[in-house]
Task: inverse folding
């Protein structure tokens, strides 16, 4: 069975789609079913939930595995669960992440609790996040031009939905001038 | 320190880069939404124990936004050319090689 949509949640989003949460939030009622994958080609185990309800069916994954043993960010095996999502036919991933706000520039209002849609990232860990390994060596398969990191059109939908909560002007780096420009 | 080296950086997080990089390799459209849990450069803002509380308070708004966008997936994805610049998934290329 294939699931085109997946939701990956982070810190503080562990108790979702439970009757307790639905009572508090007033969200639609969902049914969940455990999907446990003992091992993928890139590690495991991976513990996910199949969520059904409100006309939706998707995979939900708590990246910190909070209900069992909490995985710190450096312990998370992203390749294992991303491979599991790929194996299950996922095409769209929506993800939540708790972050720190370090720069108010570009925001009309940035405060604790604001929702922000990022448009790009800088990785300072020098981590090599790839499925490439000696068994998968190929001259071209792993080449990916890094023009846009995220699905910006979907991001713009998010932006419209949350714009009442925080006014955020997404900025894209202009390759010609290397300065930011507003996205239309 | 980060602000000095990357004055345009606005958020600080730990979990998005691995997923975004791997999502590109498997040609998946990856859409993160961030909840500002603290303002670590501003004195008095940082309190680790309150991070989960902040996220829990934002839970309804986040989930409502995500579920609304999920409902649009079948409608919008049909015949729609994404601007992600995605190539074929690496595993598909490896299989055909």
Result:
């Amino acid at each position: 069975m294939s699931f085109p949509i997946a939701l990956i949640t982070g810190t503080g989003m562990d108790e979702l789609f439970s009757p307790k949460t639905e009572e508090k939030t007033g969200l639609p009622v969902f049914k969940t079913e455990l999907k446990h994958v003992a091992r993928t080609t890139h590690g495991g185990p991976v513990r996910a939930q199949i969520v059904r309800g409100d006309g939706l069916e998707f995979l939900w994954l708590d990246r910190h595995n909070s209900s069992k043993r909490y995985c710190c960010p450096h312990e998370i095996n992203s390749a294992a669960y991303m491979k599991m999502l790929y194996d299950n036919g996922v095409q769209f991933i929506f993800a939540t992440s708790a972050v720190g706000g370090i720069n108010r520039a570009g925001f009309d209002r940035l405060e604790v609790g604001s929702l922000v849609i990022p448009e790009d990232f800088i990785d300072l860990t020098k981590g090599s996040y790839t499925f490439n390994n000696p068994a998968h060596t190929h001259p071209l398969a792993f080449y990916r031009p890094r023009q846009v990191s995220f699905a910006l059109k979907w991001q713009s939908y998010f932006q419209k939905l949350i714009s009442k909560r925080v006014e955020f002007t997404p900025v894209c780096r202009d390759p010609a001038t290397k300065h930011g420009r507003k996205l239309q | 320190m980060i602000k000095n080296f990357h004055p345009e950086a606005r958020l600080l997080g730990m979990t998005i880069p691995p997923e975004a990089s791997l999502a590109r390799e498997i040609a998946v459209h990856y859409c993160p939404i961030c909840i500002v849990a603290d303002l670590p450069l501003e004195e008095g803002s940082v309190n680790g124990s309150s991070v989960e509380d902040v996220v829990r308070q934002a839970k309804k708004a986040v989930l409502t936004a995500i579920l609304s966008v999920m409902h649009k997936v079948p409608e919008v994805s049909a015949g729609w050319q994404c601007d992600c610049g995605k190539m074929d998934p690496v595993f598909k290329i490896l299989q055909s090689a």
Q: What stands out?
A: Helices of chain A lie at 19-25, 78-87, 152-162.
